[in-house]
Amino acid sequence: MANHELVLGQNPDLALGQNPHPHDLVMTPTHNIGLRSRHTLGLGHSHHNLGLGHNHENDHDHDLGLGQTHDHDLGLGQTHDHDHDIGLSHHHDNGLVLGHTNELALGQSHEPDSEAHNLGLSDNHELTLAEQHELDENIDHLTMDPAQELALQTAHDMSNNQLVVAQNTPVIQSRVLAVNLDYQLVVGQEFSDVKSCRRAIRDAAIACHFEIQTVKSDKTRFTAKCAADGCPWRIHAAKLPGVPTFTIRTINESHSCSGISHLGHQQASVQWVANSVEERLRENPHYKPKEILEEIHRMHGITLSYKQAWRGKERIMAAVRGSFEEGYRLLPQYCEQVVRTNPGSIATVYGDPEDNCFRRLFISYYASIYGFVNACRPLIGLDRTLLKSKYLGTLLLATGFDGDGALFPLAFGVVDEETDENWIWFLSELHALLEANTENMPRLTILSDRRKGIVDGVDFNFPTAFHGFCMRHLSESFRKEFNNTMLVNLLWEAAHALTVIEFEGKILEIEEISQEAAYWIRHRPPRLWATAYFEGTRYGHLTANIVESLNSWLLEASGLPIIQMMESIRRQLMTWFNERREASMQWSTILVPSAERRVSEAIERARGYQVGRANEAEFEVVSPHEGTNIVDIRNRCCLCRGWQLYGLPCAHGVAALVSCRQNVHRYTESCFTVATYRKTYSQTIHPIPDKSLWGELVDGSSGVENRIEKLINPPKSLRPPGRPRKKRVRPEDKGRVKRVVHCSRCNQTGHFRTTCAAPI
């Protein structure tokens, strides 16, 4: 057999060669051996030995024998005075050469002159075992499969130490079957019950990357084996007599398989995912399924589906916040707690008489009712948002506006679906609570999208109210129809116009751009949306804008179980009431900040106006750019209509008041004063105890009987799978005729030029 030499050129002197002492392995503190492979490694037997020299001051000969029956030499040459030889033998003639640049060549050839390949070693010649393999004095066999690759990894990345694998065979990634000490199973180990026993064995299989197959499992014993064919690993646990404790009786820890080769794991169930991320989810309920997948892959090295992560999260969240089904079942008790903790509040739930499936829920807190009736503007906005929970449903909202212009939630309704009938019911409940809490029903102004159910409900319950379009809904429909930003801006300017002349001027501008757009606008009665024609008082609010304003926290709440959603809303209201109450205590002005700014601006503008007095109440105000306006301070009105529409003196009114030395602040609506604002939030929304205490807080046994009779089941309709549509369909869009498009190429209708298929 041909002998091939291995030469290592480097400052430290190292020689590896044959040693007359058989089966000896010497490793110095600075020399380690690293092999990256998933195959068994063994040091050769016979008369070959391994020696690594450490002392470079003396001239010693150390031998290394690697192989089985043949005697091939592997030499490491140095440029120093000390020579050490290595003998390497294999089934084939293999040469290993390391030069001055620490290049190691591994040849795989039957010919003596096999090609050299480079493999770099670091200065201290460290070799470490990869994939948790250990090398000790007891290893006496080293076998190498020529079809696989041998990689020696150095401890440091050096520029001259480059690793080159002398093989064309691709590297196959696979797991190594290793024992994880944290999940080690031993005979005599005890568990509290059979579930804990099964859980521990499952966790051990996942940690050590092999799958198990249950052989027998009942209340007294549990037996499992490795799922790989022919693998001897097996475990048996049994119940101790008289106690639920389980103990491991026998275990065969040896594996003949190499573990699982796929990236998933049969034991990685939904419950296992839930247990793995339970602590993290309790700390951060916003932990996303995608993040769960990433953490499990990083911690356990397995890849799961998105659905598994989502179901695991839902299982934990159901334990934390309660299930969706439990939320509906506990609604009667929850309503009782709302009324008990917040006296004067209204909380009612209705189910289907036939099967008790949920239909409607109405809640309004007394603090909101009191604040709206006694201190808010007589203006209500109506809106709704779809629930994003497990079951279909719609959240209906009725909000007022406080003196500073902020939203003031008044009542909430949850219905199984948005229908005209449910809107009429919601408005009837709203009318009932206002009628019960005020002697004289105020003449309200209501803003909505004017769908049929809302119009019918307003006409029936609030016959004297002014019901107008919410301009946000109207402008979105207009934008869908014409998709022209300039036209949309002109529509808003027409809506804000205070006088009929100004309004008609904006409509003419729209007509010059698009006669179709002007035709579309004129078919929407201006008395329902235009400020110049609207008969009610909107105080400058053209939109309800409820959902968009509350979207930051309402969007998250809409995906919770129904009781959790209502509790999230209650906590937000409780926080708002407290924060706004405390903030108002710091104000030292007569009017709220927004009204104070508006009056200050009007006073500044009025400085250049000329005022003529006709009598004690009527004034003529002349301005350089606006001409002449007539002001009546007794009736608080001006020809420009600004005073009437906003409830605050306009610049003309301010000029008239200042000229007769009247206090401007006394001529503002009472809702804009700080005193009234404090009255708005004077009441408190009280917290509701945990559901575990509800049974103890119910007085008498009759409460239990009533709760049994009022058992509410979830709605019949589940939310369909898939991503919900982002844009909601407006009532005015339903049934509308689409625009007729024309092709400029063939002069036909129904398509554009870009999609025309007619022959030339």
From TrEMBL:
* Residue span of region Disordered: 713-736
UniProt xrefs under PROSITE patterns:
ZF_SWIM
Q: Which UniProt keywords apply?
A: Metal-binding, Zinc, Zinc-finger
Keyword Zinc among UniProt keywords:
yes
Q: Which GO terms fall under molecular function for this chain's record?
A: zinc ion binding
Checking Pfam families in the record gives: DBD_Tnp_Mut, MULE, SWIM
Tagged with keyword Nucleotide-binding:
no
Against InterPro entries, the record matches this protein to:
MULE_transposase_dom (IPR018289), Transposase_MuDR (IPR004332), Znf_PMZ (IPR006564), Znf_SWIM (IPR007527)
Q: Where is the SWIM-type domain?
A: 619-661
PANTHER family named among the record's database cross-references: OS12G0597300 PROTEIN (PTHR31973:SF171), POLYPROTEIN, PUTATIVE-RELATED (PTHR31973)
Q: Please give the name of this protein.
A: SWIM-type domain-containing protein
Q: Please tell me the species this chain comes from.
A: Rhynchospora tenuis
